[in-house]
Specification:
With 761 residues, the protein is α+β, with helices and mostly antiparallel strands. It is globular, with a radius of gyration of 27 Å. Strands 34-35-37-36-38-39-40-41 form an eight-stranded mixed β-sheet, sandwiched between helices. The chain has a domain at 472-760: 3-Layer(aba) Sandwich (Rossmann fold).
């Protein structure tokens, strides 16, 4: 059979598998399948079910254009809950209309027409359609089942009356239908995934499964998130920043509260950023992930655990805000009240801090997934290890070791979950040639030399497509940088090409983060560029995670030189091996990769053309206009006190040395790397006469949302490189956006690119 190369139209056909949830008996897994609707130009997420023994094909539970997510089984295994943006049930609609007192009004009372995620529940024994449990105007964020399966705890934004009126005003759904002004008092005034932030807080609620009765569990000036109900039903764990200055730090503590709201326990004390809390089966411990200094994002995330026996009870949670708690426990007097004894009457002072055990410290690798309790004494967790996500196992003694995969370095894990009944473990295994699929194996086999071969494949939605495709072959390449440090890169080789053949154009694709890593997984753009004929170089430069804390932290406060050196040494390595054509080198990157691209072209002319996506240019101007002021402050201090360093390491410092044609791509509402940064870079290059083009995706944040825009992005990048001597771009399989010339962008020829002919001479 003759295999074909990947084309843009394949983006509409491929499906993704994620968010698996194991039934308590270990016999079934619910999971989400994500795909694209070409006609509607939308993405969808539907709920599916599959047996873990490998017998039987996956079964679809939901359909349509809805966004279903986060499936979770009740403890008795009878009910399957999930979040969905589908239309409200008729009886729920009627209840909402009666509550609002206006049955003819179609707009949401909060003024936002976009569907909000609500909790829906399947009765897996009775069958039939799912039943809606919640009707929150601001939607539901997270939820978890009670031990007896009769209730669910959830977190949700909870605006008061005045806040509701404000939301209606700024969303343009008030009496005048005109969007009112944004009124901002918060220091953290924006976030990329949310836009400008308001003062509405997120609190915890409990809903009855049978009658939908809702009880509010927490209140006050702080957010409470990530609720997890203990297996014995006595406690609900949650996360909250109650420092009194939540917008000026990244700390969050682990708290416990009784389901009736009467008693609270504080489990950590102000020096961590707790995430993904998970109860032990006996309800005696809570495991979570955190690094040891929240504002320093370069430090590794570790697996930590606390014991319930060591905590102190607090009877007024709402009062525990901003009272000087320290990592040693207790409170610190302030200027207004220096009597610790007086304050202790309101704020209990533990004799000692709740002991926090760090279980993965000796591995010197980051934890990248939620803890999975194997039993009362052992935990499984996903960790990054040398450009690969692997599964590690540890006891409460902290003897962590990697157990899967053992020998296979050409795959990476995306998810892990297990049941407590028969030791079934389900993993999301991602490969460059087949994408992510679910596999099952028994925990008793973990650590064996042949364990990689014992996993049973449960899903393969894209097999019919991949069976007909030629895909890139991945290789790991190690080399020395200028500091004689070993750097590792992944290289995607075009289908059919082998070392020893004629050198090919090279495309250096720089990952974002920088605290991230390239791993051997299926990425559509990588496979597409390899199919065009590029050798794609993906360097895990210094600053990347999965190679140890020192490797990651070395760039702190000094972005640019080291990452650039690692990149250029990688390019030279492939030139020296005879793989890459030194006259046809190209560079691109998204986010931090875009920043590095901007830096690279100001420090070298080896690239024929480059593409910078959603990056930064001037760090002084970025401070306060992006959503990362705490990151900047921890790395460099504030710019009015350290402006010289900000200027020195900004890509703008190389502005006068740039000669490389650059395509700049940005999101109109990107608050992580604001549009103004792209505009400054663009005008700089235009003033200097450097071939350049600015592409702005309207209403987009720090990502590309719709399938059509994803295809447009890849098309424009490929076309830009083709115009400057890269691989020919002839893919007309997808409809493009017209440019000012009126021609579909995917059909544009070289003359449409600014000064391409002159730049190539």
């Amino acid at each position: 059979m003759v295999r074909k190369k990947l084309c843009l139209a394949d983006l509409y056909r491929l499906k993704g598998v994620n968010q698996p949830a194991m039934a308590p008996d270990g016999k079934q897994v619910a999971f989400i399948v994500e795909g694209c609707l070409q006609k509607e130009n939308e993405r969808y997420q539907n709920l599916w079910l599959v047996r873990t023994d490998g017998n039987g094909a996956p079964h679809r539970l939901t359909r349509g254009k809805t966004s279903d997510s986060t499936p979770a089984w009740s403890q008795d295994g009878r009910f399957l809950a999930f979040l969905s943006t589908r239309e409200d049930e008729i009886e729920v609609k009627q209840a909402l209309e009666e509550k609002k007192g206006n049955s003819d009004k179609k707009d949401d009372e909060d003024g936002d027409d976009k569907p909000k995620p609500q909790i829906w529940v399947f009765d897996m024994e009775a069958g039939g359609e799912p039943r809606q449990l919640t009707m929150r105007e601001e939607g539901v964020d997270e939820f978890d089942w009670s031990a007896d399966s009769s209730q669910l705890v959830f977190s949700s934004r909870d605006p008061d009356k005045a806040q509701k009126e404000y939301l209606k005003s700024i969303r343009g759904k008030g009496k005048t239908k005109d969007k009112g002004p944004l009124v901002i008092d918060r220091m953290q005034h924006k976030h990329d995934s949310q836009g400008f932030l308001d003062d509405v807080r997120t609190h915890l609620f409990i809903v009855e499964r049978d009658n939908r009765t809702v009880k509010k569990l927490t209140s006050g000036p702080c957010n409470e998130t990530a609720p997890r109900w203990s297996p014995n039903g006595k406690w609900i764990a949650f996360i909250s920043n109650r420092t009194g200055d939540a917008d000026n730090n990244l700390r969050s503590d682990l708290w416990l509260i009784k389901p009736d709201g009467t008693v609270t326990r504080r489990m950590t004390f102000g020096d961590l950023a707790v995430g993904s809390p998970r109860w032990s089966p006996d309800s005696e411990h809570v495991a979570f992930i955190s690094n040891c200094k929240p504002e320093n994002g370069y430090l590794l995330q570790h697996l930590m655990v606390v014991s319930l026996e060591e905590s102190e009870e607090i009877h007024d949670l709402a009062q525990c805000v901003g009272k000087g708690w320290t990592s040693l426990g207790g409170v610190v007097p302030d200027d207004e009240d220096d009597d610790p004894a007086a304050r202790a009457r309101v704020y209990p002072v533990p004799e000692r801090r709740t002991p926090v055990k760090i279980l993965t410290l000796h591995l010197d690798r980051p934890v990248v997934g939620a803890p999975l309790w194997l039993n009362e004494e052992e935990i499984l967790v996903l960790m990054g290890d040398r450009g690969q996500t692997r599964l590690a196992k540890t006891s409460l003694l902290g003897d962590a070791r990697f157990v899967f995969p053992v020998n296979d370095r050409m795959c990476t894990l995306s998810y892990a979950l297990l049941d407590g009944a028969n030791g079934t473990l389900v993993l999301g295994v991602d490969r460059p040639s087949s994408g992510a699929n679910l596999f099952a194996l028994y925990t008793a086999d973990l650590g064996e030399k042949e364990v990689d071969k014992k996993a049973v494949q449960l899903t393969n939605f894209n097999q019919a497509i991949f069976d007909k495709l030629e895909t890139a072959v991945y290789q790991r390449v190690e080399y020395k940088n200028s500091d004689d440090k070993t750097i590792e890169a992944l290289v995607a080789l075009p289908p059919g090409w082998k070392p020893g053949n004629e050198p090919l154009p090279l495309l250096a694709d720089i990952h974002g983060g920088p605290m991230a890593y390239d791993s051997p997984s299926f990425r559509f753009d990588t496979q597409y560029w390899a199919a065009l004929g590029y050798i794609v170089l993906m360097v895990n430069y210094r600053g990347s995670t999965s190679y140890g804390e020192e490797f990651c932290t070395v760039i702190r406060g000094e972005w640019g030189p080291r990452e650039h050196d690692d990149l250029i040494c990688g390019v030279n390595t492939l030139i020296d091996r005879g793989w890459a054509d030194p006259q046809r080198l190209f560079c691109t990157g998204f986010s931090q990769g875009g920043i590095m691209t901007n830096w690279a072209i100001g420090h070298t002319d080896i690239f024929r053309a480059a593409v910078s996506e959603h990056g930064l240019w001037d760090y002084v101007a970025a401070f306060g206009t992006d959503d990362c002021h705490l990151w900047w402050q921890d790395d460099l201090g504030v710019p009015w006190q350290n402006e010289e360093q900000y200027r020195r390491i900004s890509p703008m410092s190389g502005a006068t040395k740039i000669n490389t044609p650059l395509l700049i791509m940005a999101g109109e509402h990107d608050w992580r790397c604001p549009l103004a940064q792209a505009e400054q870079l663009y005008i700089t290059l235009k003033k200097r006469g450097i071939p350049s083009r600015l592409v702005i995706y309207q209403n987009e944040k720090h990502a590309i949302s719709t399938p059509k825009r994803a295809i447009d992005r890849i098309s424009r990048i490929s076309q830009w490189f083709a115009a400057y001597g890269g691989c020919a771009f002839t893919d007309n399989a997808a409809e493009g956006y017209p440019d000012q010339s009126g021609k579909p962008q995917h059909n544009q020829i070289q003359e449409d690119i600014p000064n391409a002919g002159a730049a190539m001479k």
